[in-house]
Amino acid sequence: MSINIVAMEKAELVEEKVDWKGRTAVKNKHGGARFSSLILASFALENVATIALAVNLVTYFNGVMHFSIADAANELTNYMGTGYILSIVVAFLADTRIGRFYAVLLSAFIELVGLSLLVVQAHYPNLKPPNCLIYDPTANCQKVHGGNAALLFVALYLVAAGTAGIKAALPTHGADQFDEKDPQEARQMSSFFNQLLLALCIGGAFSLTVIVWIQDNKGWDKGFAVSTLAIFLAMIVFAVGLPRYRIHVIQGTSPITEIIQVLVASFHNRKLPLPDDPADLYEIDGDKEAAIEAEFLPHTDVYRFLDKAAIQTTATGNSNKPETPNPWKLSRVTQVENAKIIFGMVPIFCCTIIMTLCLAQLQTFSIEQGLTMDTKVGNLFKIPPASLPILPITFMIILIPIYDRIFVPFARTITGHRTGITHLQRIGVGLVLSSISMATAALMEAKRKRVARDNNMLDALPVLQPLPISVFWLSFQYFIFGVADMFTYVGLLEFFYSEAPKAIKSISTCFLWSSMALGYYLSTVVVNVVNGATKGITRSGGWLAGNNINRNHLNLFYWLLSMLSLINFLVYLFVSRRYKYRPQALVAPAADGNKKASV
């Protein structure tokens, strides 16, 4: 009887996860869908705080800080890019030093400080330029400079650092609440990634309506204050779940360091011949190392040049005694396979950069388009242009549960795949839709400019003299890209997490954020290059130059992006067909006992 009870208790333990006190996590007590809801709620609140910044900061830069339209767009994309690229640093710290729980909590606090500084600057007139109508060509508006500019950028990049940490650690901490080896929890984890996007949409819907309206009608200081309150509440909600979370165990070594060691060792052994039998490559003895819970991956025949990192050599003067392992000269086969997985992900990663380049335009130039258009909703009220993304987000709030609860189970019965369609198929659908979205944006911009020209309003002042065309014409491009977003970005997040070995899951999910960072930075480069290349052939001094969007050639820029996206999709088809999903990892049995908690 007692043996059965012990066996039952062991069956309920979750391998490789602990509670907040370092004890092995218990399945019915820790983690699971119930406690992942706290993580989803905190993510929704964090997006309440930040989504409004992503769509409306360009208006703040242009109308309050007096940047030109192109400069305002570039400042926003630089801010967004930094917020994504810093996620790699936080992922490194989360896996090796502070743990994912504390990484999220610390990042939220940093974001709280940054938003508080934005509140202070927006509230006090002496911390920003004098009021001026930037759209009036005769006005001599003073651009923010000196100490005020320093305060602006310190606040912004503190917010960027905070959002980076949350993006890096929160999704992986949420996925840690599920056991991939349990079929039911594996399906729940797939649903968790869909629900993560749903949480983003729900938080974004509030941010795009309430907070944007407050920013535009009640003052930027009040809008930033509501964002500050939202991130404070996110911290509280997230922290409440600590006693019930499954906690990832801190890794003894950095996965990034191990991958670099593989590269160095393969270069060091570049002149050595590969053995005919892969079994001769170096690997630790699973039986002897069972107590340290090591992961083992089988050898694959791709990227064979990396296998040279696992070639064993003999010590000098003793042909029978193997050389003492030096991690910079000799790597395990499993470490080599980890590096191969990362190398295999790189082409997929590169094909998603262009999509974020397109997204950046919807957050910058499309907002400027909306400022010139009629924003009335009947005779009731005016919708802020920055709130336009509420349309695709509303649709996604309806579509995501349908996709998760109806489409995926139905597709699963046909394909046998637990996610309905493969991750790469899901990503491909989104890439096609992003190209269609940019083509739609080009058509809508041509229509908007035609209305301006036909009504002799090419020099009309934005907001004050709206064109006789509804801002809802822009909803088509937002709607199509919103659906693309649902397919590609969630597909990428789940793809990188599912494919990566346990040692590099945080780092692998940062592939998505790094892709978005490069897309935002690329937007800055492309805008400058396009302006430079077209400076001498346009009256406006470049397709995107100046503050009068009616005399620019934004429609041609959108067509350029649509063509780039289509070419990018064709390249993606080639690389995705060559990608091979990784084999199932084998995990040596772990010894019982407490582990160091990576909270």
Task: Provide an overview of this structure.
It is globular and about 80 Å long. Helix 7 packs antiparallel against helix 13 and helix 14 (423-454) runs antiparallel to helix 15 (475-499). It has 17 helices and 10 strands. With 599 residues, the protein is mainly alpha-helical. It has helices at residues 2-12, 32-63, 69-85, 87-96, 100-123, 146-175, 183-217, 220-240, 255-268, 333-350, 353-362, 365-371, 390-415, 423-454, 475-499, 505-534, 554-578, and strands at 13-18, 24-26, 247-249, 295-296, 373-374, 376-377, 381-382, 467-470, 586-587, 597-598. Strand 1 and strand 2 form a beta hairpin. It has a 4-stranded antiparallel β-sheet with strand order 2-1-3-10. 61% of the residues lie in helices and 5% in strands. Residues 1-11, 289-293 and 584-598 have low confidence and may be disordered.
Topology:
Blueprint: H1 2-12, E1 13-18, E2 24-26, H2 32-63, H3 69-85, H4 87-96, H5 100-123, H6 146-175, H7 183-217, H8 220-240, E3 247-249, H9 255-268, E4 295-296, H10 333-350, H11 353-362, H12 365-371, E5 373-374, E6 376-377, E7 381-382, H13 390-415, H14 423-454, E8 467-470, H15 475-499, H16 505-534, H17 554-578, E9 586-587, E10 597-598
Parallel strand pairs: 5-8
Antiparallel strand pairs: 1-2, 1-3, 3-10, 4-9, 6-7
Helix pairs in contact: 2-3, 2-6, 2-7, 2-8, 3-6, 3-16, 4-5, 4-6, 4-16, 5-6, 5-8, 6-16, 7-8, 7-13, 7-15, 9-10, 11-16, 11-17, 13-15, 14-15, 14-17, 15-16
Number of strands: 10
Radius of gyration: 26 Å
Low-confidence runs: 1-11, 289-293, 584-598
Largest sheet: 4 strands, antiparallel
Mean pLDDT figure: 83
**Spatial strand sequence of the major β-sheet:** 2-1-3-10
Q: Using the alpha-carbon principal axes, give the shape.
A: globular
Helix content: 55-70%
Give the helix tally.
17
- Which structural class best describes the helix and strand composition? mainly alpha
Order of secondary-structure elements:
HEEHHHHHHHEHEHHHEEEHHEHHHEE
N- to C-terminal separation? Answer: 36 Å
Proportion of beta-strand residues: under 5%
